Amino acid sequence: MLYADAKAIGVIEAKPEGHTLTGVEPQSSKYTVGLPKGLPHYHLPLPFAYESTGIKTQFTNILDPDARSREVFTFHRPEELIRMATLDSQLRSNLQRMPELITDGLWKVQIEAIQNLDVSLANNRPRALIQMATGSGKTFVAVTDSYRLIKFGKAKRILFLVDRNTLGKQAENEFQQYISPYNNYKFTEEYPVQRLCRNTIDPAAKVCITTIPASLLYS
What we know:
32% of the residues lie in helices and 17% in strands. By secondary structure, the protein is an alpha/beta fold. Strands 1-2-3-4-5 form a five-stranded mixed beta sheet. A three-stranded parallel beta sheet has the order 6-8-7, covered by helices on one side. A hairpin with a 4-residue loop joins strand 3 and strand 4. Mean pLDDT is 93; it is low at 214-219.
């Protein structure tokens, strides 16, 4: 059982290295409902469940709509679990209630891309691909949707990956020039944007722009 700040917050089902985690999720989910009500807790059932072999780890946020497990790199820090457990609404719930897109100044292909992405995320599909022609405003679409994810989806932080520094500078400039159609503030007037030049992330940054080796983009 996982405790954070002296309250029960989740469970871990451990399996030996090499054991498949397929079908283990129902086992850990049973533990989330068995806690005696008298023990200090954040939610009942307990909101978080892990299954891990020590090499591979899966995580389920039971507070999500249509909750299901997903693979994670490692366990969350206790303060992050507390943050998620005490949110008024979870990210995936927010994605199902995104406001209508204001289309002023957007091209038809940009409108279609953003609206289709909204539908995909609302349907609890964690991966999406937007494919657009050169010169069609892909970066502007990415900045527009980043703004919507932060403002209305309450996303904690967005990692914006580029494959070379010049594109990182262009992306940063796009964020700086973006003006919200909802309140006429510039993106960077509302939310800090950081282009990483060292291995330290500003805790206040809502967008981090950084490079990734091109070879990894196709791995």
